[in-house]
Amino acid sequence: TQLLEQSPQFLSIQEGENLTVYCNSSSVFSSLQWYRQEPGEGPVLLVTVVTGGEVKKLKRLTFQFGDARKDSSLHITAAQPGDTGLYLCAGVPGNQFYFGTGTSLTVIP
Amino acid sequence: NAGVTQTPKFQVLKTGQSMTLQCAQDMNHEYMSWYRQDPGMGLRLIHYSVGAGITDQGEVPNGYNVSRSTTEDFPLRLLSAAPSQTSVYFCASGEDSLSTDTQYFGPGTRLTVL
Lengths: 109, 114
Description:
heterodimer; A: mainly beta; six-stranded mixed β-sheet; 0% helix; 51% strand; globular; B: mainly beta; seven-stranded mixed β-sheet; four-stranded antiparallel β-sheet; 11 strands
């Protein structure tokens, strides 16, 4: 069982559509992070959410941390082909960074 | 700054062979870690280090060894390669292991074990 479960695992949408990716856990986290990974490269940090209920916006991306600090979501408005990639959530119980199972997003022009 | 560098980029091994994946960072980060990435499994932590001379096991440490003799370098050793170790390996570094710290990743090593 993964500590951080993401859904959906795969998502293929047309350019201009909206989408939401979810990151869920049975554990409480002091904060959660979202990374994006492009093919052939390592993940790159997008955002860190630290307060229960917090909402952060990064251009067309909106990140929310659940009130109970066990889950987070990433909403993309008007998706573009440049948004294509693997989206990973991550949290730190103790000294270890745990990553979610990932959501592979493909935006079709 | 080069950031986090990994060598080699690709490697093919035969079952039973040993090898070392190299990882170096020039950001003076204390925290370094190794992950493997398999389809549908996200990134799984193999070993990590909170500073020179200190290492610890992650989620999937079996079959791998690490050492941290300097702040800059964190090599990962495969003692006797097995087909189950076929994967993409990423090294990462961060200032600390705090949950708000950014982890910087290398470009990865794609390993195939035949």
